[in-house]
Write a structure and sequence with these properties.
single chain; mainly alpha; 140 residues; 76% helix
């Protein structure tokens, strides 16, 4: 896992892996979560946080994708790479539905995940989009 070893970081990483794997498939998110948790050696608290993120994101997917689309210039959510799309969805969900988590934490964690799984350029891209999602949320 990347630099931060905290429970919430590991939960976000697990959630990212689940969202990435299930996209465009009929796979059961619970089964994928169990499999990925086993692969990562995740503890029960990490799994619980990841489950909250995955199912929250899936429940609010239209609002999440809408917020990403509104924060994006010249492209749609389907134009983004699969890893970046999963990171953006995870971050946008937290920005929209988890107001107790500081904006800076959500964006920093998302950027770190993007860099780890998709490279430095993906981190900069995610930072820009989620910054606009956060600004729109603050302006609402």
């Amino acid at each position: 896992m990347s630099r931060s070893g905290g429970r919430r970081h590991r939960g976000r990483e697990l959630a990212l892996r689940v969202l990435f794997e299930i996209e465009g498939t009929p796979k059961d998110p619970n089964l994928v979560l169990d499999y990925q948790a086993d692969e990562l050696g995740a503890t029960a608290d990490v799994i619980g946080f990841a489950r909250q993120l995955v199912f929250g994101c899936l429940t609010l997917i239209d609002a999440v994708d809408g917020s990403i689309g509104a924060a994006s210039d010249n492209w749609t959510i389907v134009d983004v790479g699969k890893v970046e799309r999963a990171v953006l969805r995870l971050g946008a969900y937290e920005l929209l539905a988890e107001p107790k988590t500081p904006v800076a934490v959500v964006i920093d964690e998302s950027v770190e995940l993007a860099k780890t799984y998709a490279g430095d350029e993906a981190g900069a891209f995610v930072n820009g989009v989620l910054g606009r999602v956060a600004a729109a949320r603050e302006g609402a």
